[in-house]
């Protein structure tokens, strides 16, 4: 069955180009030309992925993403932005977007990101299904514990309110304590971008958000630690 991509973009020429290329790759597409219509379609049609422009009539992309996550929808969201401002990208990621790509973008890169995010979502769903049958080995490091069967992380025996991405990041690092992973390696293993080269700020945002929920003092982390110039590791 073909995967469905919802395109929320007010520039018709961009919608037409995206639709043509996505259809050629075997995807079905839905189109919305303003934020309100995009949110409605996202909630009603439950697409496999959303390409979401930031600057939209009626409701901007930030609000669309915020409202989508409030409804507990985990649909992958890739934000499309013509802006280069760091704050826009960080805000989008903090509101629950999975990725962003800056216009003008190459179609090859966009298609690769679409494929990676859909594949990751399928892997998460498969892992959730497998967890129901049990058998996942619990990860325990002092005050931090991770139960793969329940897909829940704990601190001092209290469940942590993590997003799916934050849980995956913590689980990956904690499964190999002390091993330093570069941002590129984390993009490859946690974000599922094979051979990733490019903007890795999404990793820093995810780590910062994770620290806010895991650490006693996020400014002086004990668990998710930076190795300057190299990357991040879990300190067991």
Describe this structure in words.
The protein is α/β, with parallel strands linked by helices and 236 residues long. It contains 8 helices and 11 strands. The strands form 3 sheets. The protein has a 5-stranded parallel beta sheet, with helices on both faces. A 4-stranded antiparallel beta sheet has the order 6-7-8-9, with helices on one face. The mean pLDDT is 86.
**Fraction of residues in H or I helices:** 40-55%
Query: β content, as a range?
Result: 15-25%
Structural class: alpha/beta
Q: How far is the first residue's CA from the last residue's CA?
A: 43 Å
Low-confidence stretches: none
| Major β-sheet annotation | 5 strands, parallel
How many extended strands? 11
Radius of gyration: 18 Å
Number of helices: 8
In order across it, which strands form the biggest sheet? 2-1-3-4-5
The succession of helices and strands, N to C, reads EHEHEHEHEHEEEEHHHEE
Q: How would the global form be characterised?
A: elongated
Tell me, rounded to a whole number, the average pLDDT: 86
Keywords:
43% helix, alpha/beta, 4-stranded antiparallel sheet, 236 residues
Short description:
This protein is of the alpha/beta class. It contains eight helices and eleven strands.
Describe the protein's topology.
Blueprint: E1 4-8, H1 12-24, E2 28-32, H2 35-45, E3 49-53, H3 61-70, E4 77-81, H4 86-94, E5 99-102, H5 107-132, E6 139-141, E7 144-147, E8 152-155, E9 158-159, H6 164-174, H7 183-189, H8 201-214, E10 224-227, E11 231-234
Parallel strand pairs: 1-2, 1-3, 3-4, 4-5
Antiparallel strand pairs: 6-7, 7-8, 8-9, 10-11
Helix pairs in contact: 2-3, 4-8, 6-8
């Amino acid at each position: 069955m073909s995967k469905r991509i919802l395109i929320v973009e007010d520039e018709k020429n961009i919608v037409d180009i995206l639709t043509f290329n996505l259809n050629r790759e075997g995807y079905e597409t839905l189109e919305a030309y303003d934020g309100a219509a995009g949110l409605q379609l996202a909630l009603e049609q439950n697409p496999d992925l959303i390409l979401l422009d930031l600057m939209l009539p009626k409701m901007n992309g930030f609000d669309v993403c915020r409202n989508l996550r409030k409804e507990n929808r985990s649909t992958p969201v890739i934000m499309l932005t013509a802006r280069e401002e760091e704050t826009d990208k960080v805000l989008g990621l903090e509101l629950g977007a999975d990725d962003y790509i800056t216009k003008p973008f190459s179609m090859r890169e966009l298609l690769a990101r679409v494929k990676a995010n859909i594949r990751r979502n399928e892997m998460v769903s498969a892992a959730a299904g497998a967890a129901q049958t049990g058998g996942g080995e619990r990860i325990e490091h002092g005050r931090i514990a991770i139960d793969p069967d329940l897909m829940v992380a704990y601190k001092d025996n209290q469940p942590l309110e993590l997003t799916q991405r934050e849980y995956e990041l913590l689980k990956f690092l904690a499964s190999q304590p002390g091993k330093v992973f570069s941002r590129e390696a984390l993009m490859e293993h946690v974000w599922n971008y094979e051979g990733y080269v490019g903007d890795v700020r999404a990793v820093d945002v995810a780590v910062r958000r994770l620290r806010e929920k895991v650490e006693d003092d996020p400014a002086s982390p004990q668990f998710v630690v930076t190795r300057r110039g190299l990357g991040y590791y879990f300190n067991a």
